[in-house]
Design brief:
The structure holds two protein chains of two kinds. Chain A is α+β, with helices and mostly antiparallel strands. Chain A has two domains: about 1-60; about 60-115, no CATH class. Helices cover about 55% and strands about 15% of the residues of chain A. Chain A is built from three helices and two strands, in the order αααββ. The longest helix of chain A has about 40 residues, at about 15-55. Chain A starts with a helix and ends with a strand. By secondary structure, chain B is α/β, with parallel strands linked by helices. Chain B has a single domain, classed as P-loop containing nucleotide triphosphate hydrolases (Rossmann fold, 3-Layer(aba) Sandwich), CATH 3.40.50. Chain B is built from seven helices and eight strands; from the N terminus they run βαββαβαααβαβαββ. Classes of the chains: A alpha+beta, B alpha/beta. Chains A and B meet through helix 1 of A and helix 3 of B.
Chain lengths: ~110, ~210
């Protein structure tokens, strides 16, 4: 940008302190909104991660079937043949209850390793 | 259509005056020549360069390098001093430092405002502001100056001296001057006078 344009802009703001104040308030509000939205997103993400950790523990690896299911025999073989003892089966399914046929629930089951 | 029968060739260093009623198309013609507006048909050529062949950037560069403008309401930048207003077209054309400072001082002296370079436009009278505007239009040696009612906002005495100054400076630098005006005083100084009537450009005897 031309040096003269910069000087002209600076003088304009010096001559109009009210506009300078409004411009600064506008910038501050804009930054505050961005930071606020960012914090809210971070909080939501963190809460989700904590919830997941509560259910699944500090999982490093997962075995998931292509169709979302996994035969129980695979878990047995995994414990028996690979000697990985810090493994736990997680059951997750959408279920309905006879008394509430119109509502679906997520069922989570975690076995202690 | 404001202009529909305009066919004219303006020579180097010529002083051409456009007269006509308000709304007749004088400013429109100046805007077309100055590459501010584009015509719906026809061709305008400046130094063998057809304006219709230029894109927006090309037209901006042409305006910056080859054309100086003088307006009725001066259009000086209020937050720049008189000297800085003259420095701006030089800076845009790559002239900076001591060369620019010297040229600004020379042009301020040429319009009789050598001591007023540090003043802001609001600290100058209307006539002084227009003299700064004239210097700004000529400082980058544009080749063509387009003046749109440059005396419309000045009293008769100031207007007469302003026109004489503009005429003298343009002739001294070999600059073509095309001026739209209502002022009868100008006509006596012009090389050629054209009237715009019904969208047509008609040459009138000087």
């Amino acid at each position: 940008m031309s040096r003269l344009y910069a000087r002209s802009g600076r003088r304009f703001l010096q001559r109009h302190p009210g506009q300078l104040g409004l411009a600064l308030v506008g910038i501050a509000l804009g930054v505050a909104v961005v930071v606020g939205v960012d914090l809210a997103n971070d909080s939501a993400r963190r809460a989700f991660e904590l919830s997941s950790a509560l259910v699944t523990g500090r999982t490093t690896h997962q075995l998931v079937g292509v169709d979302g299911t996994l035969p129980e025999s695979i878990y047995a073989r995994l414990r028996r043949e690979t000697r990985i003892h810090r493994a736990a089966p997680v059951i997750e399914a959408i279920v309905r209850m006879p008394r509430l046929p119109d509502r679906a629930f997520t069922l989570l089951g975690v076995a202690d390793s | 259509m404001v202009l529909n029968d305009v066919n004219v060739e303006v020579r180097d260093s010529e002083f051409v005056v456009l007269v006509g009623r308000s709304g007749s198309g004088k400013s429109t013609l100046l805007n077309l020549i100055g590459a501010i507006d584009t015509s719906t048909s026809g061709e305008i050529t400046i130094d063998d360069c057809a304006l219709s062949a230029l894109d927006e950037t090309g037209r901006a560069l042409l305006r910056r390098r080859r054309i100086g403008f003088v307006f009725q309401f001066f259009n000086l930048i209020p937050t720049l001093t008189a000297a800085e207003n003259l420095q701006l077209p030089l800076e845009l054309n790559g002239v900076t430092g001591a060369a620019a400072t010297q040229r600004v001082a020379d042009w301020l002296a040429a319009v009789g405002l050598a001591e007023y370079g540090h003043r802001f436009p609001e600290e100058l009278s209307g006539g002084e502001q227009q003299r700064v505007a004239i210097a700004r239009a000529l400082v980058h040696a544009p080749g063509i100056v387009l003046a749109d009612e440059p005396t419309g906002n000045l009293d008769l005495e100031t207007a007469t001296s302003m026109i004489a100054l503009l005429d003298r400076l343009c002739r001294g630098t070999g600059t073509t001057l095309i001026m739209a005006t209502h002022s009868q005083e100008v006509i006596g100084l012009a090389d050629r006078v054209f009237a715009i009537r019904g969208g047509c450009l008609i040459e009138e005897p000087v």
